[in-house]
Amino acid sequence: MPAPRYANTVAARRVATPPETSAMELIWIPISVLGAFLQAIRTAGQKALNAELSTLVTTYVRSFFGLPLLLVYLWLVKEWTGQPFPEFNVRFLAMSLGASISQVAATVFLIQMFTLRNFAVGTTLTKTDVMMTAIIGTLFFSEVITGLGWVAVILTVTGVFMMTFARAGLRAFSVQGEGADAWKPTIIGLASALGFAFSYLFVREASLSLESGDVTLRAACSVVTVISIQVVFFGAYLLWREPDGLKAMFPNWRLCTFIGVTSAVGSICWFTAFALQNASYVRSVGQVEAIFTLLISHFYFKERFNAAELFGIAVTVAGVLLFLL
Asked: Distance between CA atoms of 204 and 201, rounded to whole angstroms?
């Protein structure tokens, strides 16, 4: 009996040489950039919605309002490819469950930071998710990172940190408050980063564990499964604990729909990219989200770049360009 596809894939990746640089091999880069752009927009929407709804309900909105679009996308992919749905296995379901739980937890922590006084500390620490993904993925998952890959990862993270410090200033990162409250932004920021890191790795492993179907179909099955788990089980919890909060989503349906659509399309981008490439590489390219945030500030709010921000952008872009080599 032939070995399962997942086993062959992981074995091949363990002895992998640097990836080919054909156009199709690099398609994950623009897909990741689009995912980062949509994530920046969605996060802004969630921050606005959090003023009206609780943290948990705001987290739930992205899944509940995004699932219908994802189901349509899955049907379109199946019709377009003409392939049957891959057979789900225990590993796929376990990885999907892990991705669902860790993604919800990370998002809850992220939204909780909107209410913190020292927001800059927490949001900066969430950017450590790339390094966490690379280290944890190498030690415990199927990540295979080349020497040049490590350089690219470190450059993109460094560039983002430079942009953040340049915009917020060093004073914003000083410890404020006393006792546990002083360290709350640090703890929540690191917890969010860790949750996101595990969600990326679980998503990639889920896609790799499916034994049939092309990458687009496997990614579509993965994203629908993960989001469906969130809608059903997280929704049941909220129905028990915050029924009035769930009802409050519908008067805010316009903003909720915006968040759901941007989240759904962004998730399609992320899941497809994760199915194509190392999770740590994908998230490194995704650090361009910080650049999009600066560009929005510059062109919409008319805020000027300073020299440190421009240098941080250059370092981040340099790290992304290394993945083309």
From this structure: 5
Distance CA 171, CA 85 (A): 53
Say if CB 90 and CB 96 are below 8 A apart: no
> Which two three-digit tokens encode residue 168?
């917020």
Q: Which two tokens stand for residue 77?
A: 């992919």
In angstroms, the CA 19 to CA 144 distance is 11
**Residue 129 identity:** D
Classify burial at 126, counting beta carbons within 10 Å of its beta carbon; exposed 0-12, middle 13-18, buried 19 or more: buried
| DSSP annotation string for 254-319 | HHHHHHHHHHHHHHHHHHHHHHHS-HHHHHHHGGGHHHHHHHHHHHTS-PPP-HHHHHHHHHHHHH
Instruction: Supply angle C-alpha 228, 229, 235, rounded to 5.
Output: 90
CA distances to 12, 161, 272 from 212, rounded to whole Å, are: 17, 40, 15
Max Cα distance, the chain (Å): 63
Contacts of 312 (CB under 8 A, 6+ apart): 159, 160, 161, 162, 163, 164, 166, 290
The pTM assigned to this predicted structure is 0.86
Question: Are 316 and 159 spatial neighbours (Cβ–Cβ below 8 Å)?
Answer: yes
Residue type (1 letter), 303: E
Question: Which tokens hold the place of 92?
Answer: 């796929």
Position 226: which residue type? Answer: V
Q: CB of 188 within 8 A of CB of 108?
A: no
- The predicted structure's pLDDT at residue 209: 95
Per-residue pLDDT tens for 14-30? 333 344 445 668 899 99
Residue environment code for 298-309, b if the CB has 16+ CB neighbours within 10 A, otherwise e:
eeeeeeebeeeb
CB atoms within 10 A of CB 5: 16
pLDDT digits (tens, 9 = 90+) for 228-241: 999 999 999 999 99
What is the distance between the alpha carbons of residues 31 and 39, in angstroms, rounded to a whole number? 12
Give residue limits of the domains in the chain. Answer: 23-322
Neighbours of 280 (CB within 10 A): 29
